[in-house]
Specification:
Chain B: Pfam families: BPD_transp_2 (PF02653). The complex is a heterotrimer. Chain B is mostly helical. Chain B contains eleven helices and four strands. Chain B has one domain. In chain B, 73% of the residues lie in helices and 3% in strands. Chain B is globular, with a radius of gyration of 19 Å. Chain C is α/β, with parallel strands linked by helices. Helices cover 35% and strands 26% of the residues of chain C. In chain C, the strands form two sheets. In chain C, strands 1-11-10-4-9-8-7 form a seven-stranded mixed beta sheet, with helices on both faces. A four-stranded antiparallel beta sheet of chain C has the order 3-2-5-6, covered by helices on one side. The chains are: A alpha/beta, B mainly alpha, C alpha/beta.
Chain lengths: 386, 304, 254
């Protein structure tokens, strides 16, 4: 019986350990990033911990892993360039608002944490906003696009990506004017990302007189054949608000298998090497950063260390830079949480790796954020078309 | 009508996959009276194995062997790897607990399940892998009742049927099958017949797990996406199918699998995708209330 | 000659009189179920070609003795020797392979399987059932041939007895162990059973029969032992035991 208990405990323990390990720390690679403003104002290197709230494990671990790794890269690049001593504290939220609301207080009570990158989901932002506001903790999301988040309710919140209000009309416009769509099916993922964006696109399409049908799927759904069976012959575009590009690819493949004529248009969550079906479309809040000369170094460094990436990583890099820049501005040895959060909206990154300058409105949105649309060519790589 | 036929094909394909997983549950329950909650992960490992074999052979873009050979290799590798994994799990997570309480191996199974999910995450990362079947196997399939049926689905369905028929023959007609049934019915009496019960259990685990591995490759070929959490939901559905059909009954597992697959397919099309899983589990509850032993579950024959 | 009562404390290796060689030998067996001392210093021999019976009342350890011989129960001290080989630490499957077969208490058939399948299972250690063995079983039990496709659990007690015996024969055992073959059978069936057992014995199968029905057992046995609360209290030839006063009063009702 003793041996049996030991085995049981060992099993559970190693299970837990691996779960923790899977999101564990690895030394970050460094790259030559564009010069950053800020360092320490005195001789001592500026020190502070940056919380990263992301779905590190769970069904969306593909996203969270990429976000975390880009954050790590940003920190090591910034430290190398500016002699600072920033570090990362992980906060695994599994993209769940409830879980996020338990992670936030942990980060708040950890005095070393002076700012947060994330959370990834709009629903999560809403659940942690008040706690971070109370604690004067700045939090910059790389992927929460729900427009209402910057209506003023969360004074310490900012984001480095455009909102649903920008992506929706941009995509809808393209579908109508360039693809001539009269009938569109929106396949919507049941997440806060999918819901908000789908509504924005639907509204924009309907305003242009397009017949829109919305179908909901769960992020964990393995089988799109039943969904595709509902797409009829005169639907020209299937708009997929997915966060996992491999799912978008599966959707496109299934459409092909059932000989449907509709082409797939993936929202920014699908921008990734995982969605590489020729003839399909995808939008992104940045051009392919591998195509931007000043961003190539970062892209190469990431690929060398961690492999392929999609759309969720590069904005996380920029969000982390924002926090560090805000923290280092008045830093005397140890960064200060309150000072960091009051500096965030004043941060300016003229040539961010996203290919556009980062400055903020007083509500926390990026000024003049644009959306880019790509078509996937026969070489299975996206090419800019707008 | 077209939608109906399409959904029928989808449902049968999905049903075949669930049936194979359910068979694994039922076989193991038969000989050990244990619900092997790690079975879903064995299926997941099979799916990954098939993927890596495919990539190793140049797929999905440039296979270095004929496609049919690549697919055969994927299946064989997955079945062997999954089979061995199952044998390992029995040896290290269940056998030491044989003399323990009924619940100890169940908890161990949950632990193994967690362990494998995260081990795969740690080893291979969180990125979803795609079998991307259309890249090496495109082409429209035959027409059935006015609907174009995808050939990959036909292969999967046929293979599932072959495996199920093979298993049934193994259990009903061979000496080993008799030994399996003897161990399942009365382990002590089986020992008295000179049966090495451990050997039988190991072989049952291998067979059950190999079936799950095959199911993993099938899912990859038909539904493309493979990730480390896919075993959780599939395992749950397979377990549901086995219980609905009557745990311990082989035809029951096949019927249960088919039923759950068809329910999911038709619900997604005619109601909503949201309800597909919900309905399957509702059916489980209904069957448990009305026929607790499952649809084909037999009344226990009293040992005389 | 009068039957010898077992001298207290003596651990004799018992042997049949005459030139028979021992097939099964239990020496100095002490078996415990937890703290309970079930078998105390048991010594027992079955010679080749012998039919030996083990008598005693309820819960005296008779079944445990059989199980010890088979390997289903491990003794704390003592040895089990079969056909000259020490099998004390060997698993049951090996002992069955070496030539033991058992007709368990209450038959223990595989109820959901057919009669034929039950017989086929009996041949497990031979690899595949030999048609010759099946023929022999059907010769002895013609009824089974008729009912070969019937589900075993639906047979009557007497029919199940036949299947159980046939099943044991399918492995061509050198030693058959029977645990209370008369249990649950009507007197007529009991007589029939024992006739069959005698037939098998004459065919050359050695036997160890555990029985409460001492009359029937002694009527076909060569030798016997009497077990009382885990100790052998009497041993001798069947004739001697039948004539023993105490035994007659206690077990034979005369």
């Amino acid at each position: 019986m003793r041996a049996a208990t030991k085995i049981l405990v060992g099993m559970m323990a190693s299970g837990m350990a691996l779960a923790a390990c899977a999101g564990g720390e690895t030394p970050a690679a460094t790259s030559t990033a564009p010069a950053m403003a800020g360092g320490s104002t005195s001789g001592t290197p500026c020190t502070g911990a940056i919380g990263v709230m992301a779905p590190i494990t769970g069904g969306a671990a593909a996203i969270g892993g990429e976000q975390l790794n880009f954050a790590k890269l940003a920190v090591s690049d910034y430290n190398a360039k500016n002699g600072t001593n920033f570090s990362i504290v992980e906060g695994d939220t599994q993209l769940d608002a409830g879980q996020a609301s338990t992670v936030a207080p942990q980060l708040v009570s950890n005095q070393a944490v002076i700012g947060v990158v994330g959370p990834a989901g709009s629903q999560e932002v809403e659940s942690v906003g008040p706690a971070f506001a109370d604690a004067k903790m700045a939090f910059v999301s790389p992927s929460a696009t729900r427009t209402s988040l910057t209506s003023g309710a969360f004074p310490t919140f900012a984001r480095v990506i455009p909102t649903d209000d920008v992506q929706g009309p941009t995509d809808a416009d393209f579908m109508v004017s360039k693809l001539g769509a009269k009938k569109v099916v929106i396949v919507e993922e049941k997440t806060s990302y999918g819901a908000g964006l789908s509504s924005a696109v639907e509204k924009a399409l309907k305003e242009k007189g397009v017949d829109v049908k919305r179908i909901q799927v769960s992020q964990k759904q393995p089988d799109y054949s039943s969904v595709v069976a509902l797409v009829d012959a005169d639907t020209s575009v299937v708009f997929a608000t997915f966060q996992i590009a491999a799912n978008t690819k599966a959707l496109a493949n299934t459409l092909q298998q059932q000989s449907k004529k509709a082409v797939v248009f993936g929202s920014d969550g699908s921008f990734s090497a995982d969605f590489d079906v020729p003839g399909q479309y995808v939008s992104s809040f940045a051009p392919d950063i591998k195509g931007i000369p000043s961003s190539k170094a970062v892209a190469d460094a990431y690929t060398a260390k961690y492999g392929e990436f999609g759309t969720f990583g590069p904005p996380t890099y920029v969000a982390t830079q924002v926090i560090m820049t805000a923290a280092a501005k008045d830093c005397t040895g140890t960064a200060d949480r309150a000072k960091t959060s009051s500096n965030v909206l004043g941060v300016s990154i003229p040539d961010s790796i996203l290919g556009q300058p980062i400055t903020f409105t007083d509500k926390g949105d990026v000024k003049d954020a644009k959306f880019f649309i790509f078509k996937i060519g026969d070489d299975r790589k996206p090419a800019l078309v707008n | 009508m077209e939608l109906f036929v399409q959904q029928l094909v989808n449902g049968l394909t999905l049903g075949g996959v669930y049936a194979l997983i359910a068979l694994g549950y039922t076989l193991i329950y038969g000989v050990l009276q244990l619900l092997n909650f790690a079975h879903g992960e064995v299926y997941m490992v099979g799916a990954f194995t098939g993927f890596f074999v495919m990539v190793g052979l140049g797929g999905p873009g440039k296979p270095i062997v004929p496609v049919w050979l690549m697919i055969v290799a994927m299946f064989l590798a997955a079945m062997v790897v999954s089979g061995l994994l199952g044998v390992g799990i029995e040896r290290f997570a269940y056998r030491p607990l044989r003399e323990s309480t009924r619940i100890a191996p169940l908890i161990s199974a949950l632990g193994v399940s967690l362990f494998l999910q995260n081990a795969v995450l740690l080893l291979f990362g969180s990125r979803v892998r795609s079998y991307d079947t259309p890249r090496y196997w495109s082409g429209a399939g035959p027409q059935v009742a006015g609907v174009q049926v995808n050939p990959v689905r036909i292969l999967v369905l046929v293979l599932a049927i072959i495996l199920m028929v093979g298993l049934t023959r193994l259990v009903e007609k061979t000496a080993f099958g008799r030994g399996m049934r003897a161990v399942a019915y009365d382990r002590d009496a089986a020992v008295m017949m000179g049966i090495d019960v451990n050997k039988v259990i190991v072989l049952v685990f291998f067979v059950a797990s190999a079936l799950a591995g095959a199911a993993g490759v099938m899912v990859g070929l038909v539904f493309f996406n493979v990730n480390n959490y896919m075993g959780f939901l599939a395992g749950l559905k397979g377990f549901t199918a086995a219980v609905v059909g009557g745990i311990g009954s082989i035809p029951g597992a096949m019927l249960g699998g088919l039923l759950i697959g068809l329910i999911e397919s038709f619900t997604t099309a005619y109601v909503s995708a949201n309800f597909a899983s919900v309905l399957s589990f509702l059916v489980l509850i209904l069957v448990m209330l009305l026929k607790p032993r499952g649809l084909l579950g037999t009344r226990a024959i009293v040992k005389v | 000659m009068r039957a010898q009562p077992e001298p207290a404390g003596a651990a004799l290796s018992d042997g049949p009189p005459g030139p028979l060689t021992p097939l099964l030998q239990l020496s100095g067996i002490n078996t415990f179920y937890g703290p309970v001392h079930i078998l105390e210093d048991v010594n027992l021999v079955v010679g080749k070609g012998e039919l030996v019976c083990l008598l005693g009342g309820n819960a005296c350890g008779k079944s445990t003795t059989l199980k010890t011989a088979l390997g289903l129960v491990a003794p704390r001290t003592g040895t089990v020797t079969f056909d000259g080989v020490d099998v004390t630490s060997r698993p049951t499957s090996e002992r069955v392979r070496r030539g033991m077969a058992v007709v368990p208490e209450n038959r223990r058939l595989f109820a959901p399987m057919t009669v034929l399948e039950n017989l086929q299972i009996g041949a497990w250690v031979r690899g595949a059932p030999d048609p010759a063995d099946l023929d022999r079983v059907f010769e002895l039990f013609p009824l089974l041939e008729q009912r070969s496709a019937q589900i075993a659990g639906t047979l009557s007690g007497g029919e199940q007895q036949m299947v159980a015996m046939g099943r044991a024969l399918m492995s061509r055992p050198s030693l058959m162990l029977m645990d209370e073959p008369s249990m649950g059978l009507s007197p007529r069936l009991v007589e029939q059973s024992f006739e069959l057992i005698e037939t098998l014995h004459r065919d050359g199968v050695s036997m160890l029969i555990v029985e409460q029905n001492a009359n029937m057992a002694l009527s076909i046995a060569d030798r016997g032992y009497v077990l009382q609360t885990g100790r052998i209290v009497l041993r001798g030839s069947a004739q001697e035991l039948s004539n023993h006063d105490e035994l007659r009063r206690a077990y034979l009702g005369r």
